[in-house]
């Protein structure tokens, strides 16, 4: 991870880049769809529409959809509402600068950026006076409103260049990480994988604290500090229960192989490539089908479902496990094995797939997901929610019909106080068996 940081220290401001039009980051050809076509009319979709899929469904693995409440923080409390509205207002200038720079800093981009700023500020001011102006108010709704407002002013993907550069830096150091992981025994590897997911979650352009770290050039120091916080016990630490379920125990419990795992991914760059992909690889090598669940539309630096095939192609260049799984899942049409890849000795018959979640927000309301995600969930027996937006701001208290694992680094002191009675950069590893009503 430190190698990634050293390669990426120049990423302090967005620099417009021309995206590749031919191959993925790994040099492999990538099919236009992600296996089974998710939509046939994606090219005709309009900017400003939050949900790509017109048919949104309730996530079928929710234990009780009638009592499910996605938002963890109650914004009907005036103090909470004022705090979070202020956070969004203070983050607005940085967001405008990033959005304008993402389109080359043109006069038109500056004009639209100023218009977006005024429009979103007006929304925040109205919500301060009338909390119910747009219906029930939750943090997920606020973040969703911001993304919709960006798209209304034609800023489709403000962090595109940042995401591309961080992806390239992460893929460059991935082989070293995989080699290190493969040298470990199963128990040490599982702990290292979970530590890696938690530590990599610090690279989040949606967190004001993390943006400040980038600008001050101290992200490497903070990463090292966060890595030191990997010393267990974490603030919420159910790793031992998860390990016992996965690997069994000396008390007679047998290792368990899940049939299908849904991995809800968060940020681009180190978060997904050095955190979640190696974890997905571990499930694949155990014969578990893996579905990577990502946003349908961009939100901050969150990875999207359309971007994941390129990322997987780049990772597959260094890993035969990922290559075979991606081919089975329809993510690669042509790939070559790296002759020096030491992972050839492992075999897997499980596919790696990508599904869009039906939304374009840093959070997710599981009462409204894409029909593709709902279909993929029907055969799943493990849900992993990663990142503050999907595992803490929303769904921290969600109960599921199957096993669940919630992984995140807390990057806001107030959230740490309210949710886990801890501090900023504390970690959450929350494992829960199926809801009692389903057992």
Automatic annotation (TrEMBL):
<dbReference type="Pfam" id="PF01937">
    <property type="entry name" value="ARMT1-like_dom"/>
</dbReference>
<dbReference type="InterPro" id="IPR035073">
    <property type="entry name" value="At2g17340_3_helix_bundle"/>
</dbReference>
<keyword id="KW-0533">Nickel</keyword>
<keyword id="KW-0479">Metal-binding</keyword>
<dbReference type="GO" id="GO:0004594">
    <property type="term" value="F:pantothenate kinase activity"/>
</dbReference>
<dbReference type="GO" id="GO:0005524">
    <property type="term" value="F:ATP binding"/>
</dbReference>
<keyword id="KW-0464">Manganese</keyword>
<feature type="domain" description="Damage-control phosphatase ARMT1-like metal-binding">
    <location>
        <begin position="121"/>
        <end position="419"/>
    </location>
</feature>
<dbReference type="GO" id="GO:0046872">
    <property type="term" value="F:metal ion binding"/>
</dbReference>
<keyword id="KW-0378">Hydrolase</keyword>
<dbReference type="InterPro" id="IPR004567">
    <property type="entry name" value="Type_II_PanK"/>
</dbReference>
<dbReference type="GO" id="GO:0005829">
    <property type="term" value="C:cytosol"/>
</dbReference>
<dbReference type="InterPro" id="IPR036075">
    <property type="entry name" value="ARMT-1-like_metal-bd_sf"/>
</dbReference>
<dbReference type="GO" id="GO:0015937">
    <property type="term" value="P:coenzyme A biosynthetic process"/>
</dbReference>
<protein>
    <submittedName>
        <fullName>Pantothenate kinase 2-like</fullName>
    </submittedName>
</protein>
<dbReference type="GO" id="GO:0016787">
    <property type="term" value="F:hydrolase activity"/>
</dbReference>
<dbReference type="GO" id="GO:0005634">
    <property type="term" value="C:nucleus"/>
</dbReference>
<dbReference type="InterPro" id="IPR002791">
    <property type="entry name" value="ARMT1-like_metal-bd"/>
</dbReference>
């Amino acid at each position: 991870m430190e190698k990634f940081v050293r390669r990426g220290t120049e990423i302090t401001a967005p620099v417009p880049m021309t995206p590749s039009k031919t191959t993925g980051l790994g040099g492999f050809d990538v099919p236009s769809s992600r296996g089974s076509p998710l939509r046939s009319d994606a090219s005709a979709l309009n900017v400003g529409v939050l949900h790509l899929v017109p048919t949104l469904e309730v996530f079928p693995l929710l234990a009780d959809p009638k009592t499910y409440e996605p938002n963890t923080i109650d914004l009907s409390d005036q103090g909470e509402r004022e705090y979070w509205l202020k956070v969004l207002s203070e983050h607005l200038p940085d967001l405008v600068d990033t959005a304008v720079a993402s389109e080359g800093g043109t006069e038109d981009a500056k004009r639209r950026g100023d218009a977006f700023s005024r429009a979103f500020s007006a929304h925040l001011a109205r919500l301060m006076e009338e909390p119910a102006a747009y219906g029930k108010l939750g943090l997920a709704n606020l973040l969703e409103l911001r993304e919709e407002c960006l798209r209304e002013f034609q800023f489709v993907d403000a962090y595109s260049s940042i995401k591309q550069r961080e992806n390239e830096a992460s893929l460059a150091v991935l082989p070293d990480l995989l080699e290190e992981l493969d040298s470990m025994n199963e128990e040490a590897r599982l702990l290292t994988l979970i530590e890696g997911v938690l530590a990599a979650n610090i690279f989040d352009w949606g967190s004001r604290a993390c943006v400040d770290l980038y600008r001050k050039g101290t992200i490497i120091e903070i990463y090292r500090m966060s890595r030191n916080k990997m010393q267990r016990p974490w603030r919420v630490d159910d790793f031992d229960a998860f390990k016992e379920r996965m690997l069994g125990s000396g008390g007679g419990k047998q290792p368990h192989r899940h049939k299908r795992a849904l991995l809800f991914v968060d940020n681009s760059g180190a978060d997904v490539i050095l955190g979640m992909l190696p974890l997905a690889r571990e499930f694949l090598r155990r014969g578990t089908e893996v579905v990577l669940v990502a946003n349908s539309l961009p939100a901050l630096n969150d990875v999207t479902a359309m971007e994941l095939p390129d990322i997987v192609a780049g990772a597959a260049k260094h890993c035969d496990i990922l290559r075979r799984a991606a081919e089975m899942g329809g993510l690669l049409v042509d790939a070559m094995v790296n002759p020096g890849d030491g992972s050839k000795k492992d075999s897997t018959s499980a596919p790696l797939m990508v599904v869009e979640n039906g939304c374009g927000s840093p959070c997710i309301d599981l009462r409204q997901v894409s029909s593709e995600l709902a279909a993929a969930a029907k055969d799943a027996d493990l849900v992993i929610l990663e990142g503050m937006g999907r595992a803490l701001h929303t769904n921290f208290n969600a109960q599921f019909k199957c096993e669940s694992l919630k992984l995140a680094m807390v990057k806001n002191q107030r959230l740490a106080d309210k949710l886990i009675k801890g501090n900023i950069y504390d970690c959450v590893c929350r494992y829960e068996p199926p809801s009692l009503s389903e057992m």
